[in-house]
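Subject — a protein and its fold

Tokens — whole-number codes for backbone shape
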Amino acid sequence: MRTILCALAFGLATAVAATPPDPGLDAWGGWRGLTTAATGRFRTERIDGVWWLVTPDGHGFFSVGVDHLRPEGDVSPPLGTAPYHDNILAKYGSEAAWATATRARLADFGVNTIGAFSEPERFPGTIAYTVRLALSEQAPAVPGVPAALVARITRDYFDPAFQVAGLLQQQQQAVYDGFAFCLRLDGRKQPRVGDRLCHLRGKDV
């Protein structure tokens, strides 16, 4: 029995010693263990039959993100104020201090992407983020529809004046920094225009 245990221990130690160290992450949060061409922008690439997000430095990127990352919070009508905003000011003293603490917390949680309805400008040059296109807001309003319970306009997405392709072309002319990696169609029921929207173009969006 002692001989068997010694053999097992030796085999385990040999296997652990033969395991290469984790290569770590690049500046964008991409895993250095998966390397391909560096293009200076986020993009997608099929590697060994699997589609990957790829960082500007050419490493595989698994996006883990949260949305609505902003200090304002929602306003409570009965209170006439935004409790979340009030609390962060009470705790951190300023929105800038909140952003510093939040960035560190995101790193601790393994979050590497800021999603829609956020304010990524509060974390410049430190974390990948998505770009909200807000296409629905460009559609004409439906005439004669009474005001809704919430402050939103009922829009006609079938109106010939609502040209999605033209709006996308305009958005592609915009310039984003290298940390922007996905153009997001807003609204859960928006029509899919195509996965190419998430084939990041970095500064070439």
